[in-house]
## 1
Amino acid sequence: MNPRPTDPGKDPSRDPGNSPGSDLSRRTALSLAATAGLTAALGALPAFTASAAPRRPADIPPLTGTSHDQLWWQAPGGEGSLIEQGLPVGNGRLGALARNDPGRELLLISDVTMWTGGLNETLDADGQFPYGRGDFGSFTLLARLTVDIPDHDLSGVNGYRRT
């Protein structure tokens, strides 16, 4: 029986909500209607079908983790152009650019807390991020670390390669 209070002037047996075996409240009816509508809407979506693998030229095999998918250089990065030539290392919070000189390693270290900008979540009408001097931030340098390694001069290294 429904625990709703009844109107004293009404006959409880004539109230559909109080009929024996009827527990259909407004909330239950709305929930059932919403479920039925959602089921109908999802049923109208096209079924997912897996697509075929991309077509590749027969004479070019797919990359399999070999040196084809690596960046590499035959010389250390220049001290004055480490932003362009340094190899990034890090975990997303703490990072560095490495010069990779076997005798004198240079690391420019940054930390995510050293970011000078704020969040840039606003797109212009053309769908691009605004491009103004005040719209961007940058990582400031946390530390400049130089490690000198005796007897590892670059001139004594054969077949140098950094990846």
## 2
Amino acid sequence: MRLFAWVTFSVLIIGTKATLHAESPVFMAGAHTVDITPPIGLPMWGYGARHDRPAEGVLDPLEANAMVLAVGEDKLAFVGLDMGRPPMRKSFQRIREEVQKQAGVDYLFIVGSHTHHGTCIEIEGIPSKENSYVTKFENGIIEAIVQAEKKKVPAKWAVGRLQTEHRNRNRHTKFEPKPVDRELAIIRVDDLQGKVIGHAVNFAAHPTSIDAEVMLYSPDYPGTLKKEVAEKMGGVCLFLQGAAGDMSTDRTGTADYKDFGKQLGADAVKLSQSLETKVPANPSIRFREEELHFTNLRVDYQNKVIRAVFANAFFKELVDPYMIEYKDGVRPRVTVAIINDELGVVGGSGEFFCNHSLRLKERSRLPHTLFLGYCNDYQWYFPTIEAAAEGGYGADGTVSPSPVGAGEQIINRGLFHLYDLQNKFKGITLR
């Protein structure tokens, strides 16, 4: 049977370190923020019609917000970036090596918010090789993680979820009922005295609330959301984007992106206030990461005509890194963790349609499950099979190069790892 001949799997990291705890393991947490606002004059990311027009100023600063969770020598970092995508493969590897060396942090979920008012981090050597913003961007992420690890203290935690009302909408399908993931989820960590260390907020909606003609840097609504939570509750707030491939904000009755972000932030504050943080009964971090390889792409990016079309739609310097990356196929990453036997986290390196996230949560059978899109790399859109059959932006081959069904394969691998990390396959020979 050759149904899945077009995908191979490569497990990069399996399980956790073999940590021997002389005493009962202690759950610890720390958080830190670094400003990563690019210099004015760099090309902006997200809208093809801009081509390589430079940013003209700063509407709101861009941040890297990090939260480190630790149990013994097992250390996991969540990083929320006010950027259109997470770091490129080469950058991610450098970041990983540095935080391992400087802070002993092995496990990473680096998540781009997908704001369309950041800069193009695909291009090394901007504004110059001697003064590369990409290097400064990498250093900012490294600093955020290292400082968060240094700040870690014994901690309590809670995970909470609520269904928001009309905060987002399905922008893709014309079929009813339209799938919508309206879940707002937070991870809250406090010190043992009850002082908030930080929140990680997970929600799915494109940060495209600011007009494309505004050539100013901004995190869009996630920036205001983070500010609202931090001001009302204290500590550092991260925004972790969800499966937003077909999700837009629903700003009905709101004035602008700031108003929307403040309202969504108020939802998060209300949720946080309803939670009681506790010292976890079974502190543990289990982690797995896997790279998949899809070879029969929907578009031939080595075709000179197709490359010219993309270069014309965006601009050559931005398109070239993707053309090189996709030369031998698409290599998305799936990143999985189970924290304190309560929370499962699955990260996917692209723009996943919301039904992927909804189905994952239904099938995981954990107390809480979060899906993080735009995580640890970026390979464009992953529509569902039915969305690919319907067609339209985000579902066709021009921006969804992986084979139809690739999204389902990635989610299934994430689900497999959630169960396998819990040793649910006892007595079963896995092949």
## 3
Amino acid sequence: MGENAKPQHSLWPPPAGFVPVPSQIEGIELYAPAPKEEAEETRTFKCRQCGGTISYSATQRQLTCPYCGSLQQIEAEAVGRAADEFEFTLETMAQARHGWGEARRELVCESCGSVVAVAPDILTSTCAFCGSNRVMARNATGDVLRPTTLIPFAVDQEQVQAKVRAWLGRGWMHPPELRNAGALKKLAGVYLPFWTFDTHVTADWKAEVGTVRTERYRSGGEWKTRTTIDWDWRSGRVYLPIDDHLVPGTTRVSRAILGKVEPFNLGGLAEYDPGYLAGWQAKLYDVQLPQAWEIAKEEIRAETKDACRQDTGSSHVRNMRMQVDFGDERWRYILLPVYLASYPFDERTFQVMVNGQTGKVAGQKPVAWLRIWLAIAAMLAPGAFLGLAGLLLAVLLPPAGIVGLAIGFILLIAGVIGSVIIFQKARASEEA
């Protein structure tokens, strides 16, 4: 094409109702059906009796007015695992609904970058993800995908505070004043974004598989037995149906802590209705759908590899090769309920999380390291004392000294093992 030649798209306009979409091949333009305009009105939540702002109650499981106590049902169907799923197609993405379906503002944390959607009358807040009060309000953007389903909150604030208070006070290795930490005052109910994936996996594997056998042999004029492994190449095929593989849609929470408050019962999924978000925060996803699918595929490959190893029928496997094919891939964008709090203690910040469906608590807790070192010293002291006593007795009373050394050595080894376990538990508590 010459320097003065016009681009091809200026000579051939796209069909009516189609818009350009990103192309990964230079010089090739792609068009897809234009998204349908949303005709629905943005909803606001006011009490029909007194006009006050109403919110969703985890206790009543419906919209509740805090001023006059009137209740309002949410007309959303409980769908569970039968909720709609979508294929990875341009048409599906073009037809996906966007926005929250209600008036929302976004709070942006200037410290960690987290963005949550809140009711329009909330202008300031403390970030539930890092504890910072450097939070800026802005108008909500309407270009984010709308969730298809969610699990409503089923545990209220009062229940959560009791559970967190008990959790903070549990365990001898933590400071006793932890019960009075600021976590209880900062607990915020937040709907976290998740992607779920369904697919059918076909995996062809090939590996060296070992068969254990026992053989007799003669050595030194005596018959003895020994175990050997015979290796031979084998192959097979595994079919693995994957249903509702969850991938968090945000990197702002610890996956280690999140894994400890799981599982969520996806049988409790309900059709998305903005009423469920009334009075609650909703975290915007920062992990896009393609990125989440790549994460899911890596996790599914690991699960498939375990299935292939089991298919060999042996615990002795080496040089495994695996070819994985994914078919009928489908996805959903859902919201799951959690309570979050980041609380300061001894010039450090710790995070606690509560499953808003089951009430399960997990998180980080500071450690009273003086208690840990005293406990380790107490575990090592008996072995060390008996060992030294055994050395002294070995000079005066050799038999008694040998016995003392042996007992001291055994106690010292047990003390070292116990000390390592205690130390690892303490580190894990702070770094969860």
## 4
Amino acid sequence: MGKKASLAGGLKLNYKRTFLIGFAFFGILLLWQIYDSWCPTFLTDIFARRIYGISSAVLKAGDPGKILNVQWLVGIIMACDNLAALILLPVFGSLSDKTKTPIGKRMPFILVGTFVSAIAFPFIPLFFHYNNIVGMIIMMAIVLMFMMMYRNPAVALMPDITPKPLRAKANGIINIMGYLGGAFATVLGIFLVLSKYINAADEDRNIWIIELPFIIASVLMVISALVLFFTVRENKIEKEMKAEMELGEQMAAIETPVDDSKPMSKANKRMLLAILGAEFLWFMSDNALGTYIGNYVIYHLKSASSSTMILTIAGGLASVLGFAIAGYIADKIGRKWTISIGLSITFAGLLVMCFTAPTGVVAANAANGEFTFPVMLYVVWVLKGFGMSLVHNCSFPMVVELCSSKKIGKFTGFYYAASMSAQTITPILLGFVLNATLAWNALPVYASILTLLSFLVFTLLVKNIKAKKVSNATGIEALGAED
């Protein structure tokens, strides 16, 4: 499309291409959902064996307080992986910005990262099954390291070829694709119930219950990367989109225009730091819930781990709804207020969770000492899923709005540096809180406080800036709304 044609027709989102780019995020959230849902419980069980000489299932029945005593170790291991990611994400982002190959600047990182992660991923449950803690942690580190090689360039690919005013809507599509990957992982968790493996006697533990989800995830990750590789030609699309990207730059919702030949303006720098500060706090909250919810359900609510999977589906469906409409809400009221509303809804849900307790009603599988899952927690997860989808959908476009196309990988690195530093600190911090309080209710209280703080930082410090308008653009894909 030439520049004149682009200006005459306005900016329109290429939905098909955006869905195809979304296959990258499909693979990311597929792996992440399985990793976060299963690995903390693997670590809890393996530390219980090393420290107390018995499985976590025996501890849960006899002395559940000791389960809380090992959570600080679980938090440290989960945080060490994130610490490596904190370092590597900005590095791979900047490297991919400067890379030039016949298949593009992002694709080499996506392909290498995917294939190495896919090979290492199934070895995590294998080493756990054979009580090899060193092998398990090494595999976790390899997976995380190469997923960082994959993640930053994969996420940067969307803004590479999407004009700035269209990125909120495009990000909604990308996130929906990602949540489809997460939903698939969740369905696997319903049929392959982790708590059945954990609660079984050692001689009755079936390795395939924990191995199959990891193998299936690896296969689907490779398939998603190949779909992306064969359908999205980076170099060709960048040439075709040049005029539209220039028009999008002129319409950016920023205080001062971006100029690579000059230092970042004070106004734009203040905006960036405020967004990243609020992002750090809401990821502190969200990752605490994601890391410990599996243990919270199994050891506090004394419910089947399949309940966690159903919980995730409920939150995922609400998230998909949020991602589908977040871009349109942002067009009407601006990205700032869309995010603020999302944080408010999330906070309301977490307040309810603070008062959620085990029901005491014996479930159908009472032989394992399991209780019925509290229905109110589904409501909490629906509110949290919808609220945080508004937040995640609009926050990343706000960060990459503040840079030119030459630095998208670098600024994507800033975005993930904030989230990964939060995910490095929060498992350790919350692990110590749980160890000190010996109360699982500390989890929702901790998350509620951090969500409230992120709301205050974002609402008070971030400006709601209007995008410039294109007078001749029409239809639902046209620009011209406030952003």
